[in-house]
Design brief:
InterPro entries: Acyl_CoA_acyltransferase, GNAT_dom
CATH architecture: 3-Layer(aba) Sandwich
Radius of gyration: 16 Å
Order of helices and strands: EHEEEHEHEEE
Low-confidence stretches: none
Number of strands: 8
CATH topology: Aminopeptidase
Pfam families: Acetyltransf_7 (PF13508)
GO molecular function, one term: acyltransferase activity, transferring groups other than amino-acyl groups
Strand order of the largest sheet: 3-4-5-7-6-8
Protein name: Acetyltransferase
Number of helices: 3
Largest sheet: 6 strands, mixed, barrel
Length: 176
């Protein structure tokens, strides 16, 4: 197994095709003909077994506002593992590698919007219930700003010394 960290602009068309296939198999209810869900991430971790892409995690480097206080984050996008390779610790290893990179990069938090929290809880994330503001984007269209309370889907992991504060979360962009 080989894990590659790659900047988005360096990914080849062939690798994008592999990402599309993996993402669509892992998220069958959200199939898209492109390698991302809402927007291109800044960089990705790609996991290969020989030449087969078996896991993927996109990452956005962003500032968000939590109760009007800026926090630097790595936002996790489209973390997925091929069903044949699940339950082998691959997703946890990706989260560990991202945590290490975040510490070296002086990032305050890892941030994810999730359907299932168990993986993230096992890896040191905490769930939040908060009023959120974000830009509604779907299929390359902007539908304006959204303001909504989100419960049981926001997961954060503190990396830096700045603590999380209670209050509204402004994603200052699209929802991951």
């Amino acid at each position: 197994m080989k894990i590659e960290l790659i900047q988005e602009y360096e990914i080849s068309p062939a690798a994008h095709a592999k990402i599309i296939d993996l993402k669509n198999r892992c998220f069958p209810d959200h199939q898209k003909p492109w390698s991302y869900y809402k927007q291109l991430p800044h960089f990705r971790f790609l996991v290969y077994d020989d030449t087969s892409l078996i896991a993927h995690m996109g990452v956005d480097h962003r500032v968000i506002a939590v109760d009007d206080q800026p926090r630097t984050i790595f936002g996790i996008v489209d973390l997925c593992v091929d069903p044949q390779f699940r339950d082998r610790g691959i997703a946890s290893e990706l989260l560990d590698k991202l945590s290490e990179l975040a510490r070296r990069s002086r990032i305050d938090f890892l941030f994810a919007i999730v359907n299932r929290a168990r993986l993230y809880e096992r890896n040191g994330f905490q769930g939040l219930d908060a009023l959120c503001l974000w830009l509604r984007i779907n299929d390359h269209k902007n539908y304006g700003a959204a303001v909504e309370r989100i419960a049981n889907e926001i997961m954060v992991k503190q990396i830096g010394e700045k603590g999380w504060v209670d209050g509204p979360i402004d994603l200052l962009g699209y929802m991951f």
